[in-house]
Amino acid sequence: MQELIGTGVALITPFHTDGTVDHTALEKLVDFQIENGIDYLVVMGTTGENVTLTVEDKQAVIATVKKANNKRLPLVIGIGGNDTKVVVDQIKNTDLSDFAAVLSVSPAYNKPSQEGIYQHFKAVAQATDKPIIVYNVPGRTGSNISVNTIVRLAHDFENIVAIKEAAGDIVQAMKMIQYTPKEFLVISGDDMIALPMTLAGGAGVISVIGQAMAQDFSDMIRYALNGDVQEAYELHYKVAPSIDLIFEQGNPVGIKALLEQLGIGSSQVRLPLIDADQDLKDRLKAFLESYEQN
């Protein structure tokens, strides 16, 4: 799965001020990623506010991304949830022909046991021949996928090819890298530790900040994959302040406010999320002004 090594970005869904999808801004966002060195695109992820998109919205967003991308970069689609049968049915009934892989989040709210998590992803893997990226994000799901569970899944199912690991635990990530098969990809889902994870043997990142700071962040990961440590850390410390800022009031609240400063869409989000406050917007603007001078 060489297509999934490097920097992927979890695309936002831009909205007009009335809350409808801004397809023009979405096309501009896709072009911006391609022009600035991003390796692959992820649609229908958490950052895309997929939980507040209607079925019609989702279909329209996917169509816009596919058209704008025009097969230039690999695409990954997010299909997950906390009802295993619903997730399996959705995978079976979705045209996956244009996608390199399916990103599937561990069930949220139910808080299944490790065996429950294993059985959930067993059902997901058996629902399709497409490569599966397991998504571990305990800060949102309420349960962590253990190292042992991901090692089992990686060994037992050929099409479970990667994990997006967003527990924020570098020790856990390193153990996943150590104990999973050599070809299995451990992808960072945490922008702040994407660099050390990659240097430890990870496969890169599925990023939020990467879609705004696309050139420097994707270059940072390339340097890391090539073993150019000093160059990679120079870019990390250049970008790092923006990572703290964009997550301060939640995701994708901060990244949308930052992209607005770059002229890509508005900062509009859908309830229960609310727009970034003016103080955060001012600090993001100041960061960009300083960033562009360096």
Provide the gyration radius in Å. 18 Å
Oligomer: single chain
- CATH architecture type: Alpha-Beta Barrel
Q: How many discrete structural domains?
A: 1
The third-level CATH topology is TIM Barrel
Tags for this model:
294 residues, alpha/beta, 47% helix
Structural summary, described in words:
By secondary structure, this protein is an alpha/beta fold. The chain has a single domain (2-237), classed as TIM Barrel, CATH 3.20.20. Helix content is 47%, strand content 13%. The chain has helices at 23-35, 55-69, 84-92, 114-126, 138-141, 147-156, 170-179, 194-199, 214-226, 229-247, 253-261, 278-293, and strands at residues 6-10, 40-43, 75-78, 101-105, 132-136, 160-165, 185-188, 204-207. It has an eight-stranded parallel β-sheet. Helix 1 (23-35) links the parallel strand 1 and strand 2. The two termini are 36 Å apart. The model has no long low-confidence stretch (mean pLDDT 97). It comes from Nonlabens agnitus. Catalyzes the condensation of (S)-aspartate-beta-semialdehyde [(S)-ASA] and pyruvate to 4-hydroxy-tetrahydrodipicolinate (HTPA). Homotetramer; dimer of dimers.
Q: How do the helices and strands line up, and which of them pair or pack?
A:
Elements: E1 6-10, H1 23-35, E2 40-43, H2 55-69, E3 75-78, H3 84-92, E4 101-105, H4 114-126, E5 132-136, H5 138-141, H6 147-156, E6 160-165, H7 170-179, E7 185-188, H8 194-199, E8 204-207, H9 214-226, H10 229-247, H11 253-261, H12 278-293
Parallel strand pairs: 1-2, 1-8, 2-3, 3-4, 4-5, 5-6, 6-7
Organism: Nonlabens agnitus
Pfam families: DHDPS (PF00701)
Subunit structure: Homotetramer; dimer of dimers.
